[in-house]
Amino acid sequence: MAHRRIRPFNTRDTYPEQRLGNDLAHAVVARGATVFLRGQCPQDLDTGRDIASHDPAEQARKVMENILQLLEEAGADPSHLCKLVIYLTDVRHREAVYRVVGEMLPGVHYVSTGLVVAALREGPHMAFRQVMALGRDGPPAIHTGARGLGVTAEALGEHAAAAGNLLAHAGLPGAMLRAFEGTEGALGDRLVAALVAGLAAGGEAGPVRSAGLLVVRDQPWPFADLRMDWSDDPVAGVAAARAAYGPQAEDYVRRALDPASAPSFGVPGDP
Predict the structure, then answer these.
(1) CATH of the domain at 27
(2) Distance (Å, rounded) from C-alpha 107 to C-alpha 238?
(3) 88 and 209 part of one domain
(4) How many domains does the chain have?
């Protein structure tokens, strides 16, 4: 007897930020008697969109509504429920969540297990955010929210990452990463090469008006912080600023750490 699959979908539609293409279902009825439910999030079953709330009780209510709806579509009812596994991001939400579950399953004596998984926690509005993290050790990481602006894309290297939104096409981060990894020299020069490559590959969907370069080293302030805003050619402006500032950068660090030993700037007032 073939299993009955309820609400089949592909993850490329529901989680476009994850670059996956898995064929799944929200529920499967096996042998006409056993119902397996996919783990539920506070999402609309029809659209796959998260509800606009970070309140744990409201999220729990939406999850339970999904579970009850899927049971009904599978030909079952709450009295058939055997076990719930509830994942929380914060133990302080336990009472609010369990209260909602109890209200929606009165008289159903099911088995329940609760787990606190802090790694599942997201900050507010993360569906709109694009965040990259690069530590001293370990590989880089990127989060691209499903509701980012325009064309969003990302590329991960062994020790570098590139990402963007409002892009001309999804290949931009890959072009920037390849330029960075294929350029030798100082970090600032490699970053400028990545900016130049991104612009040459198409840049943003609209005019590129600003560009910046921020390099952090072992001091508590940026080693380089160069910006060009509202310019017809901001990448070229940043590249020119980098070319002028690069040879002097170490002298500026020295002047900050030990002014007495720093060379003069060779300008009026400091010959």
Answers:
(1) 3.30.1330.40
(2) 67
(3) no
(4) 2
Q: Closest Cα partner for 179 from 165, 162, 193, 158?
A: 193
Domain limits at 49? 4-120
Among residues 119, 46, 130, the alpha carbon closest in space to that of 87 is found at 119
Are 56 and 62 in contact by the 8 Å Cβ rule? The answer is no
In a domain, 271, yes or no: no
User: Is there a contact between 149 and 204 (Cβ–Cβ < 8 Å)?
Assistant: no
Beta bridge partners of 9: 24
Residue 49, helix vs strand vs coil: coil
The model's pLDDT over 203-229, given as tens digits with 9 standing for 90+, comes to 999 999 999 999 999 898 999 999 999
Q: 241 with 219, same domain? A: yes
Residues 135 and 76 in one domain: no
pTM confidence score: 0.59
116 forms bridges with which residues in the sheet?
A: 88
pLDDT in tens, 7-55: 999 988 877 666 678 999 999 999 878 999 999 989 999 988 888 788 8
Concatenating the DSSP letter of every residue in 179-230 gives HHHH--S-HHHHHHHHHHHHHHTT-BSS----EEEEEE-SSSSEEEEEEE-S
